[in-house]
Amino acid sequence: IYLTPPRLGSGLGPNLLLSAEAWLGERRPELQAIVARVLAGNQASEALFLSCGYDRRGADGLFEKPVERRP
Predict the structure, then answer these.
(1) Rounded to two decimals, what is the model's pTM?
(2) CA dihedral (54, 63, 38, 68) positive or negative
């Protein structure tokens, strides 16, 4: 997720990520998890994924979260 400088710190990042997860979960029922790669040194993205419930997977920038299904 890339935000332009005027949008940084606005809270838009978590809203975009969680909305994208919901969209993906509704349209891809076969998916079990979402895996994201964060570029080295991108502390803002790391913080975003961790705050949205992703788990860090090793030291290579991978983050993973099970896909949540809504009834």
Answers:
(1) 0.86
(2) negative
d(CA 57, CA 63) in angstroms, rounded, equals 6
Can you name the residues that pair with 36 across neighbouring β-strands? Answer: 63
Sign of CA dihedral 7, 11, 17, 22: negative
CB contact at 8 A, 46 and 13? no
39/52 Cα distance (integer angstroms) = 17
- Say yes or no to pLDDT of 61 above 90: yes
Tell which phi-psi region holds residue 61, choosing left (phi > 0), alpha (psi between -120 and 50) or beta: left
CB atoms within 10 A of CB 60: 9
